[in-house]
Amino acid sequence: MKKHYLIGLFLVFIIVCAFTKPETPMSVVIDNALKQAEMQSLLLAKEMETVPDSLPRTIDKNGKLIMSGSKWWCSGFFPGTLWYLYENSSNKELKRYASLFTNRINKEQYNKGTHDLGFMLYCSYGNALRITGIDSCKSVLINGSKSLSTRFNPTIGSIQSWGSNQKWRFPVIIDNMMNLEMLMWASKETGDNRFKEIAETHANTCIANHFRKDYSTFHVVSYIPETGAVQVKCTAQGYSDESAWARGQAWGLYGYGMMYRETGNKRYLDQANHIADFILNHPNLPKDKIPYWDFNAPDIPNALRDASAASIIASSLIELSQFVGEPRKSQYIAVAEKQLRTLASPEYTAKKGSNGCFILKHGVGHLPGDSEVDVPLTYGDYYYVEALMRYKKMILNK
Asked: What is the rounded CA–CA span in Å between residue 193 and residue 206?
């Protein structure tokens, strides 16, 4: 009887194995994804090479490529993507294109009319400096940091994001956390502590005013310049003022993880972990870990997903996993792996030559404004490739 029982168990095991497809190793997923990203990015670079002073942005509803000038906040993401891909493969053609498109942003180092100089310059010139050591990049980044610093208001303790209008006198958006990394670099490079002080003060003010008790974040907090008092807390791109706009949660997660890396201040790591808890434990986070465009979108589970938010979260979780112990470490890596597997699948990764030659499909830029909805987004591609590279370096190549 016992013999027949064991034989039965063995047969069940054989049947299960026969019908269970083994999961592709992450090393293969990462390598294939990077090859696909390189192929698409080279096609896009070749298409744009002869269009002067332009950078890729997205596609319209008919699949036509939409470009931008260097002043658009996303201008640094495509050259930054090319630099990451060059770092991975050492393909000299990638390096040539990365240099070409990076140089198209050069004049923005003197732009004092935007808070997005970190996105624009540090993702492009910052990666160029890190990977190639080209010394001329330093002056661009220092000048950009000086320009960004002019938007800091010491009474409020924040860098102004957008211009004032009838609704907002001194608006600060959570996205602005991402521009602090360039200031931290500039402080170390020049020895000028003011850059660091501005970055830390801005981060501290955001902790005080941007986050709710559950560590979800308001998208916009506007202040009264004369007193520093909060004027209003609301959203511009989320579903509602009280909702949790997915990419906003991602910006906060990434920003405070970065600030911990740069300062060693445990307050920032605690903040990042709290934000991660909100995201990863949210009942509306899908099983494949690609968030809906807003965690409180009214049409869940039929709401649009945002691949760009997933890419930012994955990149941040991979880095955060290096700063924490168990069980957080394993949880962060597992979620990032799930996100990367999903993004690397045909559901989100475009076929060769399709999708305007962008890498990922299904990004949501500004749904309430009916702008860049369910399309590729250049920043989604950038943080996706960054996440792939971080996984390869931090996890696979230990």
From this structure: 20
Is-catalytic flag, 374? no
87 three-state secondary structure:
helix
DSSP annotation of 123 reads: I
Q: Which residue of the set 53, 60, 116, 299 is catalytic?
A: 116
* Helix (H) or strand (E) run with residue 340 in it: helix 328-343
Predicted local distance difference test score (pLDDT) of residue 21: 64
Closest CA to 115 of 44, 36, 34, 174: 174
Domain membership flag for residue 45: no
Write down the pLDDT at residue 396.
86
Evaluate whether 12 touches 56 at the Cβ level (below 8 Å).
no
DSSP letter string, 198-217:
HHHHHHHHHHHHTB-TTS-B
Whether 390 is in a domain gets the answer: yes
Greatest C-alpha distance within the chain:
86
Cα–Cα distance for residue pair 69/46, rounded to 1 Å: 17
How does pLDDT run across 174-201, given as a tens digit for each residue?
A: 999 999 999 999 999 999 999 999 999 9
Q: How confident is the model at residue 18 (pLDDT cuts 50, 70, 90)?
A: very low
Whole-number pLDDT of residue 22: 81
Contact 267, 256 (CB under 8 A): no
Our CA angle for 108, 110, 111, nearest 5°, is 65
201 in a domain, yes or no?
yes
pLDDT of residue 223: 98
% of the chain exceeding 70 in pLDDT: 95
Q: What is the mean pLDDT of the segment spanning 392-398?
A: 88
Half-sphere exposure of 281 (CA within 13 A, CB side): 10
Q: Which of 135, 175, 241, 288 is catalytic?
A: 175
CA 200 from centroid of its chain's CA atoms: 20
Q: Can you give the CATH number for the domain in which 357 is found?
A: 1.50.10.10
Q: How many domains does the chain have?
A: 1
Please name which of 340, 384, 396 lies closest in space to residue 41, comparing C-alpha atoms: 384
Residue 279, domain extent: 135-396
Tell me if residue 116 is catalytic: yes
Residue 117 forms part of a structural domain: no
